[in-house]
Amino acid sequence: MLIRRVSLDYLASLQAERVRALAPGESRSLELSRFYEHQADRAHRRFLASVESLARVRKLIIPIQINIAEQQVNVAGNVTTGKGSTRPAT
Predict the structure, then answer these.
(1) What is d(CA 87, CA 80) in angstroms, rounded to the nearest whole number?
(2) What pTM was computed for the model?
């Protein structure tokens, strides 16, 4: 869900920057330019906040390994085998 939020905020930020930019020969009022600038700044701040939230959540996730008798259950993350290679969690 956070990844979706990051991608939507990224697209919103790109759209706001596109609207803010002027095409060659185009002009607009100072008030409208300030509005588009403020809108682009807010979209960029939302994008940065969502990226920061995603990074914080990913940092909190730690691999958990549960050993029950002879069965090994990996709940999250990668597990290193005895030969140094890794295999994805099951």
Answers:
(1) 7
(2) 0.64
Can you tell me the distance from the alpha carbon of 78 to that of 65, in angstroms, rounded to the nearest whole number? Answer: 10
- Residue 18 Cα distances to 1, 10, 86, angstroms: 26, 12, 43
Q: What tokens does 11 get?
A: 């697209």
| Distance of alpha carbon 86 from alpha carbon 48, whole angstroms | 32
Tokens of 68: 């029950």
pLDDT tens figures, 24-78: 888 999 999 999 999 999 999 999 999 999 999 988 887 776 667 666 666 665 5
Phi-psi category of residue 84: left, alpha or beta, with phi > 0 → left and psi -120 to 50 → alpha: left
Q: In sequence order, what are the beta bridge partners of 71?
A: 68
Residue for token pair 């940065």: 48
Three-state secondary structure call for residue 24: coil
